[in-house]
Amino acid sequence: MVGNGAVTEKQYFEALKRMFSEVVIEYKQKAVSPSELAEMACDLKESDEQDDWADHYRKVWVVADVDQYKDIADAERICLKNGIEFIISNPCFEVWLLDHKRPCPSSIQDTESATRAAAKAKITTGSNHKYIVDDVLTSEAIHTALQNAEQHNTANRKRSRESLKSTGKLEFAPWTDMPEVIKELEQQQPKE
Fold first, then answer.
1. Lateral strand order in the sheet of 61-65
2. Residue 88's closest CA among 105, 74, 102?
3. pLDDT tens for residues 78-94?
4. What is the dihedral of CA 91, 178, 30, 92, to 10 degrees?
5. Full-model pTM
6. For a disulfide at 79, which of 58, 84, 96, 167, Cβ 3.0-4.6 Å?
7. Is 71 exposed, middle or buried, given 0-12, 13-18 or 19+ CB atoms closer than 10 A?
8. What's the rounded Cα separation, in Å, for the pair 146 and 132?
9. Residues sharing a CB contact under 8 Å with residue 188, sequence separation 6 or more, in sequence order
10. Model confidence band, residue 192 (pLDDT cutoffs 50, 70, 90)
11. What is the pLDDT of residue 149?
12. Which residues of 176-190 are buried (b: 16+ CB within 10 A; e: fewer)?
């Protein structure tokens, strides 16, 4: 996983490492734009493929918020060209976090309102509401999030992805691709 989230996303993926303990999850963070994250992921994937002694990555994901970035279409193109999954949350990762307690409301159209809603719902805390409250980081909460995300993802995600491909712009917030990550991790986790 390659992302630009130094606190919230990092904390979330660390929790996923514990939950999916049989799956190796590596999170690389750098505070750069989505297209720069995509380039970084390409470099990591290429380096991994050239290493004859390593267990190779099964998947490489770029995890990005829409936020203020203007290069989402470029990042999407880079990822598609190089066999990398591009995981977007529109407008931001807090959409996915809100889903852990209730469906993210359609009124969430920008990062500020998503951050405020997550703090009000006691999902995030601390400086700038960047730290995830522990009860959000459970298997049960993640399964709730999968169900809740379906309510806003069904129409918004599909239309926005189509818009990204045809016009280079994302529309129709809120939505998130994070359910795809969770479903993949569940498939890779050995059954007991």
1. 28-29, 2-3, 61-65, 85-90, 175-176
2. 74
3. 999 999 999 999 999 99
4. 10
5. 0.91
6. 84
7. middle
8. 18
9. 20, 22, 23, 58
10. low
11. 94
12. bbbbebbebbbeeee
Count Cβ atoms within 10 A of the Cβ of residue 72 and give its class: 0-12 exposed, 13-18 middle, 19 or more buried.
Answer: buried
SS3 for the chain is CEECCCCHHHHHHHHHHHHCCCCCCCCEECCCCHHHHHHHHHHHHHHHHHCCCCCCCCCCEEEEECCCCCCHHHHHHHHHHCCCEEEEEECCCHHHHHHCCCCCCCCCCCHHHHHHHHHHCCCEECHHHCEECHHHCCHHHHHHHHHHHHHHHHHHHHHHHHHHHHHCCCCCCCEECHHHHHHHHHHHCCCC
Q: CB burial class (10 A; 0-12, 13-18, 19+) of residue 37?
A: buried
